[in-house]
Amino acid sequence: MEKTLLPIRLVFVALCAAVGWLICYSIKEWDAYRLLATSIGLLIGLLVVLVDILLKGFSLRGLSAITFGLAVGALVAFFISSSPLFEYASSNDPQTVYLLRLALFLICSYLGTVIALRGKDEFNLVIPYVRFVPHEVEVPLVVVDTSALIDGRVAKICEAGFINAALIIPRFVLDELQRVADSPDPLRQTRGRRGLDVLNDLRRIRNLDLRIHESEVSKRQDVDAKLVFLAQSMRAKLLTTDYNLAKMAEFHGIPWLNLNNLATALRQELAIGDTLEVSLVKAGKEEGQAVGFLDDGSMVVVTAGRPFIGRRIAAEITSVLPSAGGKMVFARLVAETV
After folding, report:
1. Are 102 and 77 in contact (CB under 8 A)?
2. Residue 250 CA, distance from chain mean position
3. Which of 286-320 are b and which e, b meaning 16 or more Cβ less than 10 Å from the residue's Cβ?
C-alpha cells in the first residue's frame, strides 16, 4: 500500500506546484511572482500530504462518526440560533448576533464531533450495517476473545453445529492475535499462528455466521474492558478461556461460555461392566498390559492387550480410578474391533 501511495503523493505535490505556476501564467500581473506562486503551490501540496500521513489509521467508521457529530452539532446550533433568545438582539445589533451564531455553530460542531468520536462504538451499534442484519431479525450473538481462538476447540464445536449463534470477533482481537503470531518468542508465535489457523477454519465452515466488528482500543490493557463493554452493549454472550475475563463478565451480568466446563460435561460416564472401544498405543507397566486413551484424555489400561498395540479393540471395564488428569480405567480384552 505504501509503495502505491508514494508515487501518487509525489504526483499530487508536483501538480500543486504546476497549478501555482499556471495561475501566474494566466494572470499577467502575477508574472513576476511565478517562482513564489510555484513555491506556495508546492508547500500546499506538502501540507496536504502531511495531513494525509497524520490521518493514517483513520477509518471510515471514524469518518461516519465525525459526519454524524457535525450534523448533530450544526442542527443544535441552528435550533438555538432560531430560538426567541436571538430575536430581540437581532433587531438591535445584527453584527453581534452574527458573531454569536458563528461562535455557537463552531462550539456545537466541535462538541458534537468530539462526543461522536468518543462514543463511536455506541454510534456504530445503532447503524444496521454493523450488525450485518436488519434490526428486526433477532440473532443470538457470541463475542469471541483471543484466548478462545488460540485454544482451538471453538472451530470443532462450530463445525459440529453445537453453536447456533453469530460469532463476533472484534478488530482489536484480530490485531492482538497478529501481534502474538509476530512475537519473537517461539512459544507465543506458535500459539498466535494456531489462533490464525483456527480463524481460517471458522471462515471455511459453511452456514457459520462469522462477523468482524470494527472496534479499536487505544491501550492493550483495555482489551478485557472493551470485550465486556461490547458484549454488554450488543447483549451477547462471551466466549473465553481467560478466567479473570470471565469473572469480570460475570460481575457485569454477562453470560459467558466456558469451553473447559463444556469439555468436562461431555466426558463419558464410565461404570464397571461397560464396554468401550479404544486404540492401544503403547505397552503398560505390568506384563501383557497395553495402554490407550479416550477422547477426554482418560487412560485405559487393558489386561492382555499388548499383542494388539496399534489396533482398535473392544474392552470391558473392570475398575475406574479418579486421577489428577481425569480418570484411569482398567479393562480386560473382549474382542478385536476391525
Report:
1. no
2. 20
3. eeebbbbbbeeebbbbbbebbebbeeebebebeeb
The residues with which 290 forms a beta bridge, in sequence order, are 283, 302
CA atoms within 13 A on the CB side of 119: 12
What is the spatial distance between Cα 260 and Cα 21, in angstroms, rounded to a whole number? 71
Distance CA 269, CA 330 (A): 14
Q: Nearest 5°: phi and psi at 331?
A: -145, 165
* Residue 299, all three cell numbers: 487412560
C-alpha cell at 128: 444496521
Which of 121, 125, 142 lies closest to 210, judged by CA?
142
**Domains present along the chain, CATH in parentheses:** 2-118 (no CATH), 134-264 (3.40.50.1010), 275-336 (2.40.50)
**Residue reference for cell 450473538:** 141
Taking the mean position of all CA atoms in its chain, how far away is CA 303? 51
3-state class (DSSP) for residue 254: coil
3-state secondary structure of 145: coil
Per-residue pLDDT of the chain (338 residues; tens, 9 = 90+): 556 677 888 888 888 888 888 887 777 777 777 788 888 888 888 888 888 777 776 666 677 777 888 888 888 888 887 777 666 655 566 777 777 778 888 888 888 888 877 765 555 444 443 433 433 446 788 888 888 888 888 888 888 878 888 888 888 888 888 888 888 888 888 888 888 898 888 888 888 888 888 777 666 667 888 888 888 888 888 888 888 888 888 888 888 887 777 777 667 778 888 888 888 999 888 888 899 988 777 888 998 888 888 888 888 888 888 766 567 889 888 865 44
SS3 state at 153: helix
pTM for the model: 0.51
- What secondary structure letter does DSSP report for 164? -
Using CB atoms within 10 Å of the CB of residue 206, give its burial: 0 to 12 exposed, 13 to 18 middle, 19+ buried.
Answer: exposed
Helix ranges, 27-93 (H): 34-54, 60-81, 87-92
